[in-house]
C-alpha cells in the first residue's frame, strides 16, 4: 500500500509539472508564431510539445523540454510497473483452453462442470514417480480429423463430430476452423452451452472481446452455475475497461465458489483500478487468508482416499493390462487408477453419445474418464466395443482428467488410439443405462478403469435443421 501511495504522489507531481511546462512553451509559441499557431497549440498540446523541441535551441528551451519529456514518460512507466512492484498484482484464471496454449477449453466432451477446465476449474495418495520416457510424438490430428470428416459427410447433423473436430482444430492451432465447427454445433443445437463457452475462449484469444462476452453470456444462460464462464467474462470485461461489470462477474462466481482465493485476488485488482481502495484491501486480505489455509489444511478428499483398502485393487482382479483379449470384466463397482491415484467411480452419465465416468462432488471432477463414442444419433443400448491397442484412428476418443495437488482445475490427456478397451451397454430402465468397462490407457502411469457402472441417460436433444433461406 505504501508503494502505491508513493507512486500516486510521483504521478501527481509529474502531471502538475507537465502542465507548468506546457504553459511556458505555449507562451513562447504565442510570442514567436502569433495567435493562429498559438490557438492550434491550445487545441493540440502535442503540437506545442513538438514545436518546443523544434525550437529548443533557438529559444533556449532544451532543459525545459528534457524535463517535460520525463514528466510525460514517468506516469505510464509507473502504471506498467505497478503489477510487478505491488504484491500479488497478477490476474489469475486467464483464458486457457485445455488444448490450446494460452487459453482453458473443455475437451471434446459434454461435461458441464466448470472452471476446469473451465475451473477449468487437491492432494491425493502419494503419486507414483513418472518413469523416464522417450519424447512424446506429436498427435496426428490431421489423420483423426479426416475420420471425423467422413462421419460428417454421412451425417451432416452429427453434433458430436462437429464438436470434437472443433476441439481438434483448436488443439492444432486452426482457430478459425475451430470457431466454424463450434458455430455449426450451435446451429444444430442452439442450447449447447459448452460450444458457446469454447468459442468464447477462442474469441478472447483473438481479442474479439464483444463476441467473447456474448458467448460467455450464452453459456451462463444455459448453465447459471457456469463458474468458469463468469470468471472469463469478468476477465474480458476488465480488459475492456468495464470494471463494474468485471466485479459483478467475479461476485457471481464467488457465490458458486465462495472459498476461491484467486477470485478474491482478481476482484481486489479491479477494485483498485476503479479507486475503491478499502474494498480492494479487504479482498486482498481474504485472498491471502484462503491461500494460506489451502497450504496447511488437508485438501478435499485426501482422508477418504487415504483409507481406501489396497485389497480392493488387487492385481489379480483389476490391473493395467497390455492386452484385454479373453479378460473378463470384473463384476464390481467401477474403479481403478488415474494418473497414479486411486479412482472410485461416484457418478456416470451419457449424453449425445458421450459417456462420462467421474468422482468428486465439486463442479470439476477429481478424476474422470470421458469416452466419445461417435454415435450417429442411434442409442447406445446393447452396443459393445472391443478395442485393441493396435486399433487405428477412428476408434472412440478417450479423455482422461485428474486434478494435481493444490490445483483447482483438472489436467487432461486425450487418447485417440493405443489404448485397450472393452465396453458393454445393457438396456435403459427408468432413465438409467447399465454398463461394464475395462479400459487400459497408454500413459506412462498406466492408468486403468474396470467394473460396472450405471449411467444417467440424458435425453437426446432435438436438433435444429437449417432452413432453405439460409
What would you note in describing this structure?
- This protein has about 475 residues and is an alpha+beta fold.
- It has three domains: about 80 residues, no CATH class; about 160 residues, Alpha Horseshoe (Serine Threonine Protein Phosphatase 5, Tetratricopeptide repeat), CATH 1.25.40.10; about 150 residues, no CATH class.
- The protein is about 45% helix and about 15% strand.
- The chain contains 14 helices and eleven strands.
- Strands 1, 2, 3, 4, 5, 6, 7, 8, 9, 10 and 11 form an eleven-stranded mixed beta sheet that branches.
- A hairpin with a 2-residue loop joins strand 3 and strand 4.
- The longest helix has about 30 residues.
- It is elongated and about 100 Å long.
- The N and C termini lie far apart (about 60 Å).
- The C terminus is likely disordered.
Amino acid at each position: 500500500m505504501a508503494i502505491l501511495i508513493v507512486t500516486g504522489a510521483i504521478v501527481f507531481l509529474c502531471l502538475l509539472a507537465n502542465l507548468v511546462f506546457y504553459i511556458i512553451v505555449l507562451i513562447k509559441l504565442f510570442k514567436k508564431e502569433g495567435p493562429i499557431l498559438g490557438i492550434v497549440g491550445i487545441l493540440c498540446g502535442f503540437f506545442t510539445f513538438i514545436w518546443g523541441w523544434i525550437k529548443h535551441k533557438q529559444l533556449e528551451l532544451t532543459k525545459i523540454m528534457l524535463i517535460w519529456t520525463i514528466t510525460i514518460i514517468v506516469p505510464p512507466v509507473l502504471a506498467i510497473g505497478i503489477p510487478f512492484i505491488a504484491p500479488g498484482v497478477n490476474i489469475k484464471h486467464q483464458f486457457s483452453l485445455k488444448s490450446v496454449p494460452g487459453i482453458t477449453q473443455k475437451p471434446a466432451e459434454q461435461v458441464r462442470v466448470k472452471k476446469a477446465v473451465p475451473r477449468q476449474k487437491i492432494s491425493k495418495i502419494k503419486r507414483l514417480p513418472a518413469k523416464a520416457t522417450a519424447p512424446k510424438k506429436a498427435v496426428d490430428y490431421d489423420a483423426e480429423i479426416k475420420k471425423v470428416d467422413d462421419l460428417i459427410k454421412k451425417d451432416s447433423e452429427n453434433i458430436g463430430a462437429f464438436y470434437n473436430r472443433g476441439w481438434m482444430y483448436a488443439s492444432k492451432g486452426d482457430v478459425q476452423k475451430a470457431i466454424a465447427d463450434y458455430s455449426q454445433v450451435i446451429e444444430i443445437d442452439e442450447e449447447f452451452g459448452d460450444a458457446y463457452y469454447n468459442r468464447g475462449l477462442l474469441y478472447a484469444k483473438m481479442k474479439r472481446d464483444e463476441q467473447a462476452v456474448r458467448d460467455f453470456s450464452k453459456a451462463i444462460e444455459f448453465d447459471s452455475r457456469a463458474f468458469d464462464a463468469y470468471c472469463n467474462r469478468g476477465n474480458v470485461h476488465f480488459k475492456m475497461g468495464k470494471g463494474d461489470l468485471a466485479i459483478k462477474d467475479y461476485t457471481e462466481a464467488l457465490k458458486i465458489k465462495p472459498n476461491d482465493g484467486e477470485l478474491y485476488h482478481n476482484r481486489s485488482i479491479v477494485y483498485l483500478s476503479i479507486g475503491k481502495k478499502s474494498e480492494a484491501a479487504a479482498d486482498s486480505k481474504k485472498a491471502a487468508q484462503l491461500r494460506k489455509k489451502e497450504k496447511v489444511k488437508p485438501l478435499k478428499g485426501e482422508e477418504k482416499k487415504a483409507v481406501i483398502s489396497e485389497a480392493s485393487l488387487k492385481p489379480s482382479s483389476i490391473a493395467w493390462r497390455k492386452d484385454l483379449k479373453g479378460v473378463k470384466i470384473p463384476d464390481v463397482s467401477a474403479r481403478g487408477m488415474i494418473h497414479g491415484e486411486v479412482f472410485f467411480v461416484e457418478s456416470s452419465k451419457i449424453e449425445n453419445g458421450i459417456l462420462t465416468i467421474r468422482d468428486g462432488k465439486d463442479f470439476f471432477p477429481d478424476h474422470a474418464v470421458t469416452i466419445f463414442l461417435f454415435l450417429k444419433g442411434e442409442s447406445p443400448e446393447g452396443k459393445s466395443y472391443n478395442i485393441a491397442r493396435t486399433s487405428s484412428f477412428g476408434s472412440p476418443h478417450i479423455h482422461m482428467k485428474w486434478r494435481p495437488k493444490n490445483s483447482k482445475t483438472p489436467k487432461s490427456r486425450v487418447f485417440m488410439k493405443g489404448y485397450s478397451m472393452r465396453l458393454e451397454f445393457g438396456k435403459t430402465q427408468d432413465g438409467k443405462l447399465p454398463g461394464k468397462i475395462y479400459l487400459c490407457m497408454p500413459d506412462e502411469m498406466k492408468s486403468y478403469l474396470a467394473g460396472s457402472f450405471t449411467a444417467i441417460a440424458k435425453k437426446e436433444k432435438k436438433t435444429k435443421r437449417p432452413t432453405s433461406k439460409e
